[in-house]
Amino acid sequence: MSFPHWMSLMRRVSFLWVAAILAADAASAQSSTSPSPFKFSLASSGESRSDAYQLLTGDGLGGATASSANPAAGAGGGAGQQKQGWKKVASHGFAFDLGAGFNAPIGNDTSKAYGGPFITWGGNLTAGGGLRFSQRLSLLGEFQFLDNKLPGSFIAEAGDGATNGNTHIVSLTAEPVLELFPKRTYDIYLTGGGGYYHKSTNFNVQTCCDFYGYPVSVNTNSFSSNQAGGNLGFGLDRRVGGLYGDGKMKLFAEARYIFIDTPPISQTNGLGKTELLPVTIGLRW
Question: 282 near 99, Cβ under 8 Å?
Answer without folding.
Answer: yes
